[in-house]
Request: fold
Amino acid sequence: MAPAPVKAAPRASAIPPTPNRERPTEPTPYAASREELLQFYRDMLLIRRFEEKAGQLYGLGLIGGFCHLYIGQEAVAVGLQSALSDKDSVITGYRDHGHMLLCGIPPKDVMAELTGRQAGISKGKGGSMHMFSVEHKFYGGHGIVGAQVSLGTGLAWAHKYRKDGGVALAYFGDGAANQGQVYESFNMAELWKLPIIYVIENNQYAMGTSVNRASAEDQLYRRGESFRIPGLQVDGMDVLECRGAAETALEWVRAGKGPIILEMKTYRYRGHSMSDPAKYRSREEVQAVREKSDPIERMKALLAEQGIKEDALKSIEQETRRAVNEAADFSESTPEPDPAELYTDVLVERY
Reply:
């Protein structure tokens, strides 16, 4: 009788590696109360109507320079920033109007900044891309792609140094995810276990090239793996998914476990900026996302399930439009900065 064949031992490379480090739990959608759902709706609607009005003012020549609108991406900032405390800090790139509104800065102050007026949050000197408010713990608005990532890492270091319990939330896009300073920041943040959440707002196209064509690793939540930074991929068109991810990320960071990456899969309906005709994608594609995944329409449907009547939503709509129109009127009528303002705020003299 022939001997039974001997089974070869599996090669080491064929054995799945045993995880050697802790990972955060998978987030679950946030269980919001009825009042919280209404607040999420109000916040997203405010950003949407504010950005639409900014687009109109840009078309009229009242806003100059570059102007990058957040239309379509509202659920990301609303979901994440609704979970923050007053100790935490926020920093982002140049698509920053919505983030500022969520930091508690009045629409009038933001719109006046867009039109370059003295009453603007940065005295009319920052414009669309460079707004800033230490009082509201909003540290920009940055025009250099990826610059906010290293600056946000510095904010996290300051939180740790001061032991103030704060967490830095640093937003950047799928295009900025390929910048070298991003990875230098990741390395420092993990070595020093800094309290920072890196948020990649993956709106699929960076300036005008799809993430699949521009990034060898297009699953951007994995970008921190070689630095031992865990990542989570989140539906950025669902505000409850975003808030649930924020809860998970904040729990991880506040436990002293170091940084975490959230890749928010989202979509912008307009071009990269107001000067972008967005010919790199079809109208049908944009319309399909609007019909299937719009974050505000999703919330309206959820509110209807909660018994919120259409009249109540119309009332919120009217209230929001009124606030945005008042902000626009104010931004057109308030004075421009005095020429002497050119020489102020140039140097910080307190060290």
User: Anything to note?
Assistant: The radius of gyration is 22 Å. The mean pLDDT is 94.
